[in-house]
Amino acid sequence: MKNMRYLLTSILMLLCFAATAQSTIKEQAEKMGAALIGKDYKTFVTFTHPTIIKEMGGTEKMAAAIEKQMKGMEQTAQILSISYDEPSSVVKEGNELQCTVPQTMILKTPQGKILTKSTLIGISTNGGAHWYFVDAGERDINAVKASLPNVSRKLELPTPVPPQFIQ
What we know:
With 167 residues, this protein is an alpha+beta fold. The chain has helices at 2-37, 41-45, 50-55, 59-73, 141-147; strands at residues 78-84, 91-93, 96-109, 112-124, 132-135, 161-166. The chain has five helices and six strands; from the N terminus they run ααααβββββαβ. Residues 6-18 have low confidence and may be disordered.
């Protein structure tokens, strides 16, 4: 009986953690998206994996590069909205928690509105308190592992969907 109570308590704690983790992941992804739309590139970079920040020359250089890229893009496209669907189940890989997060972006272009769908890989190195996000783009898990070797093969990356014009 005592073992059964311990088991049930453990299961309930795991379910509560999973619900909290899912909420935190989506909340932080939404903050990242809002920072991009709001042109707050320093905040946006706080959600970028440290390996990528290092490759870009540090936080300041990365924020400046994103700002330059976004200004250059203003002539041809403007981000109207970014939204996120529910994250996948969280998997543990070494000292990291990882998941995938579906992202939908709507862009305004001179030719019309474009809907893009992509998958972000969420990574937490501190037990789920803070999440970093990496856009998988058109890469499969093996290609992602080339730059982020700790990414779990348990993560499922869906087949990329080409952008489409919408009304």
